[in-house]
Specification:
mainly alpha; flat; two-stranded antiparallel ribbon; single chain; about 160 residues
Length: about 160
Amino acid sequence: MTQTLQVRSEPRVERLRALTRVLDDGFRVPGTKYRFGLDPIIGLVPGIGDAIGAIFSVFIVFQAARLGAPKATLFRMMSNIGLDTIVGEIPLLGDLFDFGWKANTKNMALLEKHLQQPVTAHRASRQVLALVAVGLLLILAVVIGLGVWVANMTVVRVS
């Protein structure tokens, strides 16, 4: 337990927290509790904004790896960044998504959980990865099934 507390107060963890705040929560909308950071603002730059934001986000994942986060946790973190980057590229909808989806905050929470409870965090990340794998297999099965159905419908109509 003492080792975990020493790691949590380590200066590089504090710098990651500060970077996360700047990227996701640096500004407050006046008169509201809503906060946003530089990430959605950078994302407004057409074409490259979301890619630039992803570079900052990947730095957090890189540091998490250096702090010993397991591969399953790192994969979850990269998935958060991937979703943020891909959806962020969609004009207008992506810009709105960027203001609500705080990938860096989610990733910092994953890192914090790993630093506080490494075994529990690793188990939870593996369970999420298993669910994602099952979900992707189901989507693949549906896509293949629809492809076969459409192909059969086309053959029947042509005959």
